Amino acid sequence: MAKADKADTIAELKEKFSQSDAAVLTEYRGLTVANLKDLRRSLGADASYAVAKNTLTRIAAKEAGVEGLDEQLTGPTAVAFISGDVATVAKGLRDFANDNPLLVIKGGVMDGKVLDADTVKKLADLESREVLLAKLAGGMKASMSNAVALFAAPLSQTARVLGALETKAGEDPSIIGGAGTPAAGVQEHDNAEDSATGAADAAEVTTDAASNDASNN
């Protein structure tokens, strides 16, 4: 390969390492051209499958800030660069490898962290992005419905309790401060007792109103 071609390949691989959400390294020894075509098709639009020399891939990875792939860059290597749903692409690689044992998953890198082969296969067990988003949306909808019910009940109870307190205050002005100024000594003590009694009655009304509202709801 000419020096200019090598530089172009390294630049292209570096860009893929930098812009991809993840990359999975595989060994394709023994696979035919038709097999590789089927593999690329099985990965879908979220990934591209590139065959490159290990030395160029190693240089490109390091220039992109990816370290730790040297052990995986042995033997014939092709890289699946994933730009999209990592779980879906990992499933495609795993399923293809199950049907075509000549494809060997070596490992990969995601978010700057090197993954071994077992970790890549575990990614294939994750639910797809669409499924996770659907579950998240369903959970948010249920939470919103619960929140509406939660806020609606206390508001109804509060309105009834305030109404009961207003009625009680009309019957006993001392609940909201009363009218006039109490005399000193015994009269002040008597008014304090009256206020305490009024507050206790109000508390009973509050409890009854809340209980009735809970029963009605």
Overall CATH architecture of the largest domain: 2-Layer Sandwich
Domain count: 2
In whole angstroms, the N-to-C terminal distance is 79 Å
How much strand content do the residues show?
A: 5-15%
The CATH superfamily of the largest domain appears as: Ribosomal protein L10, N-terminal RNA-binding domain
Main β-sheet, spatial strand arrangement: 2-3-1-4-5
Q: List unreliable stretches of 5+ residues.
A: 128-133, 177-217
Q: In this structure, how is the largest beta sheet organized? A: 5 strands, antiparallel
Instruction: Please tell me what the overall shape is.
Output: elongated
Description:
The protein is 61% helix and 13% strand. The chain has helices at residues 3-19, 33-43, 54-63, 86-99, 117-123, 129-171, 186-216, and strands at 22-27, 47-51, 77-82, 104-110, 113-116. The chain is elongated and about 100 Å long. The chain is α+β, with helices and mostly antiparallel strands and 217 residues long. The model is unreliable at 128-133 and 177-217 (pLDDT under 50). The N and C termini lie far apart (79 Å). The chain folds into two domains: 3-126, Ribosomal protein L10, N-terminal RNA-binding domain (Alpha-Beta Plaits); 132-216, no CATH class.
